[in-house]
Amino acid sequence: MGEMLSVKNINVFYGSIHAIRDVSFHVDDGEIVTLIGANGAGKTTTMHAISGLLKLQSGEITYCGEIISKMEAHKIIRLGLSQVPEGRRVFSGLTVQQNLMLGAYTRRDGKEAIQNDFDMVYELLPRLKERRGQLAGTLSGGEQQMLAIGRALMCKPKMLLLDEPSMGLSPLLVKEIFKIIRDVNRNGVTVLLVEQNAKMALEIANRAYVLETGTIKMEGDAHELANNIEVRKAYLGC
Amino acid sequence: MQFLSYLISGISLGSVYALIALGYTMVYGIAKMLNFAHGDIIMIGSYVIFFAFGSFGWNPLVAVLFSMVICTILGVLIERVAYRPLREAPSLAVLITAIGVSYLLQQVAQLLWTSNAKSFTSVVGLQKITLFDGQLIISGETIVTILVCIVIMVFLTLFVNHTVPGHAMLAVSEDRGAAQLMGVNVNATISLTFAIGSALAAVAGALLCSTYPSLSPTTGAMPGIKAFVAAVFGGIGSIPGAFIGGILLGIIENLSKAYISTQLSDAIVFAVLIVVLLVKPTGLLGKKVNVKV
Ligand SMILES: Nc1ncnc2c1ncn2[C@@H]1O[C@H](COP(=O)(O)OP(=O)(O)OP(=O)(O)O)[C@@H](O)[C@H]1O
Ligand SMILES: [Mg+2]
Question: Does the structural domain A3-89+158-236 have CATH classification 3.50.50.60?
Answer without folding.
Answer: no
